[in-house]
């Protein structure tokens, strides 16, 4: 009786695994021709933001075909290891909006920050579009 029950669980497990593999194979992963646009709505390049304690970051990604992943980082230009934003999302979509509020008042006046965005067209991470901007706090 135990062997029959064990065998039944193994068969059910194999069925679910097989189904998930089939679902992935049905998806077309070749989006190399996708035209991707990255827009920095807030802040804009070379902007001096109004207030360091309320810096709103708004990035919009649009494409004419599905992209697979969005990565966004924000850090002081003089210290790239100090990631204020370290965002990554797997997204099968043709548009994506990222919004985030940040308090940068702990940094010295005049500090320059960089926002980097990478949008991946494929799951392997070999085909992507990237863009960056810099801004300062007063």
Structure summarized in a few sentences:
17% of the residues lie in helices and 49% in strands. With 138 residues, the chain is α+β, with helices and mostly antiparallel strands. Mean pLDDT is 86; it is low at 17-26.
Straight-line distance between termini: 75 Å
Helix content: 10-25%
Low-confidence stretches: 17-26
Q: Element order, helices and strands?
A: HEEEEEE
The structural class is: alpha+beta
Mean pLDDT: 86
Total number of beta strands: 6
Write the layout of secondary structure elements.
Layout: H1 2-25, E1 36-42, E2 47-48, E3 55-76, E4 85-102, E5 112-120, E6 128-136
Parallel strand pairs: 2-6
Antiparallel strand pairs: 1-3, 3-4, 3-5, 5-6
Give your account of this protein's structure.
This protein is α+β, with helices and mostly antiparallel strands and 138 residues long. Strands 1, 2, 3, 4, 5 and 6 form a 6-stranded mixed sheet that branches. The longest helix is centred in the N-terminal third of the chain and has 24 residues, at 2-25. The chain has one helix spanning 2-25, and strands at 36-42, 47-48, 55-76, 85-102, 112-120, 128-136. Helix content is 17%, strand content 49%. The radius of gyration is 21 Å and the shape is elongated.
């Amino acid at each position: 009786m135990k062997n029959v029950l064990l065998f039944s669980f193994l068969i059910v497990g194999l069925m679910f695994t097989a189904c998930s593999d089939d679902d992935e194979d049905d998806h077309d992963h070749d989006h190399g021709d996708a035209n991707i646009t990255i827009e920095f709505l807030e802040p804009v390049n070379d902007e001096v933001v109004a207030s360091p304690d309320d810096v709103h970051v708004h990035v919009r990604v649009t494409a004419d075909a599905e992209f697979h992943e969005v990565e966004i980082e924000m850090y002081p230009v003089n210290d790239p290891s100090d990631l204020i934003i370290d965002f990554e999302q797997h997204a099968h979509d043709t548009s994506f909006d990222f919004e985030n509020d940040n308090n940068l008042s702990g940094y010295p006046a005049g500090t320059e920050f960089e926002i980097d965005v990478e949008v991946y067209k494929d799951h392997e991470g070999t085909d992507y579009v990237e863009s960056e901007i810099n801004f300062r706090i007063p």
